[in-house]
TrEMBL record:
One Pfam family named in its UniProt record: PDZ_2
Signal peptide: 1-23
Catalytic activity: Acts on substrates that are at least partially unfolded. The cleavage site P1 residue is normally between a pair of hydrophobic residues, such as Val-|-Val
Enzyme class, UniProt record, top EC level: hydrolase
Protein name per UniProt: Probable periplasmic serine endoprotease DegP-like
């Protein structure tokens, strides 16, 4: 074969080898400009605690048995010293010295020092903190500072490129990049509160990054790094950031009032599973099922009822119960919004005036025992709830399950002894007679929701009668 004949073949194979490399050069983003333009507004936060205060194990500790680790603290001083130092990150949001970081970075601090990229240092004032969102607002006495822009588009998607800048393990102004792994991730606090729809990423985040910014490719801040999932204390590619929509809301309130008030609905909710969806006439599991109302709360005043399934709130879809607090919490108290619910298998719109979270006094229900027994076709032995039980539960009527027959419909649905049944379908259950009348109206093959109180907590269970 002549040289001239070989050339097209060689060129063909070279093209095959070169195309992936050329494509990668065109697709992969360039982060250097974002880092160069924005690093001056990222700060290191050095926090001083009295001995015995503040919070995390020294660096290097292995196999730390925590599910989700707050990860900002890096102590460079031995524990026997009178002062302890911890470090985190933050970023300037206005030229007059306002700085955003995590609440857990400055929680319990005696002194907060802010170090700029040019090595200037300032004592910081804590303007306000919000433990529920894990955000804090600081201010330093300086002007004409570089500042970052909080994203207002809220268009971040799974697969979007993102970049973090911070000081992991005290290594100043380190940049790491990755993609968004999930949106709207729910991570309830120890108090069971769930007001932050976290951004999950695979960006390498480590102790010291906490409070630092997460950027999109436009160089805008789309989140504040807050938590990681780890078993060893270091990054394994699961990090979580507070989205800019939450940051904007919290910062505005902290700057204006020094505290944060959230929208509050006054409901206890649960997820809708397949059986419940069928019993409520839904085509698929969706929405937030209202299992209990706070007395005189916004939901009760608006006419919402236990058994309502909230599908949309203020024009936003509610795919699951975890999504409802994310939406309600961002609404200004006093705002009247439209709520779409399913009630008695029919769609209904209700106007609700959203309250403030400060009005949410905690309440709990407690279990109790009852009186006499009776049998029924569901495989349950029930009795009237005693007046003491009704008072403790805060309910006007109900029957207590004394026995669940094996292999019965109720056993299959998950009803257990001690449950207090207060609702079958949309029928209130005041006593055994009402229970038996409601059960007697059920037909073979029916799917119906049962509202229970179990160990003090309201709960709906979907029950399907046999054909």
């Amino acid at each position: 074969m002549t040289v001239m004949r070989r050339l097209p073949i060689l060129f063909f194979f070279w093209l095959i080898a070169a195309v992936p490399a050329l494509a990668a050069q065109q697709v992969l983003p360039e982060f250097s400009e974002i880092v160069r333009d924005n690093s001056p507004a990222v700060v290191k936060i050095i926090v001083q605690h009295q001995a015995g205060r503040g919070g995390q194990l020294p660096p290097g500790a292995e196999e730390i048995p925590e599910y989700l680790r707050r990860f900002f603290e890096y102590r460079g001083e031995p524990p026997q010293q009178r002062q302890r130092m911890s470090m985190g990150s933050g970023f300037i949001i206005s030229s007059d010295g306002y700085i955003v970081t995590n609440n857990h970075v400055v929680d319990g601090a005696d002194n907060v020092l802010v170090r700029m990229s040019d090595r200037r240092e300032y004592d910081a004032e804590v303007v306000g903190t919000d433990p529920r969102s894990d955000l804090a607002l600081l201010r330093i006495g300086a002007s004409d500072l570089p500042a970052l822009t909080l994203d207002t588009e809220d268009r971040l998607e799974v697969g979007s490129w993102v970049l973090a800048i911070g000081s992991p393990f005290g290594l100043d102004y380190s940049a790491t990049a990755g993609i968004v792994s999930a949106m709207g991730r729910s991570l309830p606090t120890e108090q069971g509160e769930n007001y932050v729809p976290f951004i999950q990423t695979d960006v390498a985040i480590n102790p010291g990054n906490s409070g630092g910014p997460l950027f999109n490719l436009d160089g805008n801040v789309v989140g504040v790094n807050s938590q990681i999932f780890t078993r060893s204390g270091g990054s394994i590619g699961l990090s979580f950031a507070i989205p800019s929509a939450v940051v904007r809301n919290v910062v505005a309130q902290l700057k204006d009032k020094g505290r944060v008030t959230r929208g509050w609905l006054g409901v206890t909710i649960q997820d809708v599973d397949k059986t419940l969806a069928e019993s409520f006439g839904l085509k698929r599991p969706q929405g937030a099922l209202v299992s209990q109302l706070a007395a005189d709360g916004p939901a009760e005043k608006a006419g919402l009822k236990p058994g309502d399934v909230i599908l949309r709130f203020d024009g936003k879809d509610i795919p699951s119960s975890a999504d409802l607090p994310h939406v309600v919490g961002l609404i200004e108290p006093g705002t009247t919004v439209s709520v779409e619910v399913v009630r008695d298998r029919k769609h209904k719109n209700v106007k609700v005036k959203v309250g403030g979270l400060d009005a949410d006094d905690s309440f709990a229900l407690s279990s109790d025992t009852g009186g006499r027994d009776t049998g029924n076709r569901l495989g349950l032995v029930v009795e009237n709830a005693s007046p003491e039980a009704l008072e403790r539960f805060g309910i006007s009527g109900g029957v207590v399950v004394r026995q669940v027959n094996p292999d019965s419909v109720a056993a299959e649905a998950g009803v257990v002894a001690g449950d207090v049944i207060t609702l079958i379908g949309s029928t209130p259950i005041k006593d055994v007679a009402a229970f038996e009348r409601a059960v007697g109206k059920l037909s073979a093959g029916d799917s119906v929701p049962l509202r229970l109180i179990r160990r003090g907590a309201p709960l709906f269970i979907g029950l399907k009668l046999r054909d």
